[in-house]
Amino acid sequence: MLLDPFLEFAFMRRALAGCLALSLSAPPLGVFLVLRRLSLIGDALGHAILPGVALAAALFGLSLVAMSAGGVLAGLAVALGAGLAARGTALREDASLAGFYLVALALGVAIVSAGGGRIDLMALLFGAVLAVDDPALLFMAGTASVTLIMLAILWRPFVIETFDPGFLRAARGRGAVWHLGFLALVVLNLVAAFHALGTLMAVGLMMLPATAARFWAATLGGQVAAASVLAMLASVVGLALSFHADVPTGPAIVLTAGVLWIVSLAAGPEGSLLARLLRRPHYAG
User: Fold this and answer.
1) pLDDT of the chain along its 285 residues, tens only?
2) How far apart are the first and last CA of the chain?
3) What is the largest CA-CA distance in the chain?
4) CB–CB of 158/232 below 8 Å?
């Protein structure tokens, strides 16, 4: 039941390949977001790409290049605007980002509505994993490759900026540049995930495995590896569940990731409910 759909149907293999590519690159970024206590920023940026995608679709049709470029530009504009607002005013970055993404989301829905039905809002919001074609698959694979290469090159600056941003400021380490570069990778992965999961579901494959990984490993490298493994497992099981139970594919994948998160929260070896219950108290002699 688990393997037959992928062996029999080419569209299932393309969907699986795309989801596995996203599973390699998006969850590691989610781990950094969790450690920076910016988990909801992924959700905000996922919504922020909608106006760019909708405008590109209205002007150029369902062009992969146009919609991807529009989504990246919109996401970067929101991230940059929120960062500038946070540094130039009394607002914190999460508050300014919330304002920008709500405006962007409303603008995206307005653009879709103004299109007179030529743009499928449900497809933009929830995606169509089983309709992933070869160009979209290549875009996802390219995004995963770029992300993994950049993580390998910039691992140390990202780690320092995550755990001790004050050190980078004191050492003139251009922390703002690394932060914006990191957010650019997040936006790029959300745009790639959009083509499969839509703007609402794209962040699920990034954040749920990342939060679950905290309960499986104590080190940063271990959490990154665990997050990718959990995302790949959610992709395989979610796609098979969607095929056999005839449920929407994107929500099936995210729900599977949610179940893995609940299992991790309850019984993972690192800090879960079960681990804390089994931990013996230490008494001073």
Assistant:
1) 778 888 888 888 988 999 999 999 999 999 999 988 877 787 788 888 888 888 888 888 778 888 889 989 988 888 888 777 767 776 776 677 778 878 888 888 888 788 666 666 676 766 777 778 888 889 999 999 999 999 999 898 888 888 876 666 666 656 677 888 888 899 999 999 888 887 777 888 899 999 999 999 999 999 999 999 999 999 999 999 988 888 888 889 999 999 999 999 999 999 888 888 887 665 554
2) 56
3) 76
4) no
Distance CA 18, CA 273 (A): 34
Contact between 13 and 30 (Cβ < 8 Å): no
| 69: Cα separation from own chain's centroid | 17
Six-digit token pair at 6?
A: 């992928």
Fold of the domain spanning 4-278: ABC transporter involved in vitamin B12 uptake, BtuC (1.10.3470)
Is this structure's pTM higher than 0.70?
Answer: yes
Return d(Cα 219, Cα 216) in angstroms, integer. 9
Q: Taking the mean position of all CA atoms in its chain, how far away is CA 159?
A: 19
> Is residue 190 within 8 Å of residue 45, measured between CB atoms?
yes
Q: Where in the chain are the domains?
A: 4-278
